[in-house]
Amino acid sequence: MTEGNQTVISWFLLLGLPIPPEHQHLFYALFLAMYLTTVLGNLLIIILIQLDSHLHTPMYSLLSNLSFSDLCFSSVTMPKLLQNMQSQVPSIPYAGCLAQMYFFLLFGDLESFLLVAMAYDRYVAICFPLHYTSIMSPKLCVGLVVLSWVLTTFHAMLHTLLMARLSFCEDNVIPHFFCDMSALLKLSCSDTHVNELVIFITGGHILVIPFVLIVVSYARIVSSILKVPSARGFRKAFSTCGSHLSVVSLFYGTLIGLYLCPSANNSTVKETVMAMMYTVVTPMLNPFIYSLRNRDMKGALVRVFCKKKIMV
Ligand SMILES: *[C@@H]1O[C@H](CO)[C@@H](O)[C@H](O)[C@H]1NC(C)=O
């Protein structure tokens, strides 16, 4: 396609990961295994929570939503990465690139909001145990999930529409394994000031506000535990909150390390590896972090899969 003497780009080249050719097969197998683990682990959690009536509580309903979001989040980037590792020309059409960016933002933000909802749920459960069922009603739970979807849809749509305005000229090589918003902005030959301003404003809100809310929730949880020291309450609170906190630190740790503390020589290799952490590793680990040492989940596993044996 040409427009005047300016070439309009209809596809992009995704450079992928900086892996030496002799290790391509090894990494392909590794990523495939990681992706399959993510899909199966999260599917198992969703199915368990739907099937077992003991897990029909706000906490597990939110966890099921988080698993769904994780499943979609890694499916936005991983299948394309695996396909590109096998093909000679790792390309992606322009529309596909925008779609990937849209869904990446959508499920990434959704994950962020769901982590806030889960932190709030734990805060109410530990600080107001007697009012928990009246505060965390199914209505509020649905409300939180719907609000998360509305906000993330709006945010992802805003950035995708702003990106669609830009034109891309000669350079169509993306030094990344997916259509990352900042990588696309660097390629554009239009004025990207508006985009950068919007990213700065909304990005601050989308990253910093959830993080602060989560930290405040857990700080209140810890202070309320310390006020009434009892070994049992202590252990119970830390077994649920400890797992949530490890997910949160993994997710925000890499994001904040990447975007808020850029080092002097912010190499693309380092950026790609860190992007790999939150796009692939976090969604894969979530099901294990939540089910590990979780008696309810283990109980549900036994109840759902050994039902026949128990009935006999
Ligand atoms: C997400 O949460 C809502 C509200 O609690 C619930 O009705 C719904 O089933 C959940 N979705 C999934 C996929 O778990």
* Average of per-residue pLDDT values: 84
Percent of residues in helices: over 70%
Small ligands present: 2-acetamido-2-deoxy-beta-D-glucopyranose
Q: Supply the CATH architecture.
A: Up-down Bundle
What is the CATH T-level topology? Rhopdopsin 7-helix transmembrane proteins
Strands side by side in the biggest sheet: 4-3-5
- Main β-sheet description: 3 strands, mixed
* Rg of Cα set: 22 Å
Sequence of secondary-structure elements: EEEHHEHHHEHHHHHH
Rounded to the nearest angstrom, the distance between the terminal CA atoms is 69 Å
β-sheet strand percentage: under 5%
CATH superfamily membership, which one?
Rhodopsin 7-helix transmembrane proteins
- Structural domain tally: 1
**Structural class category:** mainly alpha
Number of beta-strand segments:
5
Runs in which pLDDT lies below 50 for 5 or more consecutive residues are 1-5
Number of helices: 11
Q: Give the overall silhouette.
A: globular
Q: Can you identify the CATH class?
A: Mainly Alpha
Domain G-protein coupled receptors family 1 profile: 41-290
Keywords: Cell membrane, G-protein coupled receptor, Membrane, Olfaction, Receptor, Sensory transduction, Transducer, Transmembrane, Transmembrane helix
Pfam families: 7tm_4
Family: Belongs to the G-protein coupled receptor 1 family.
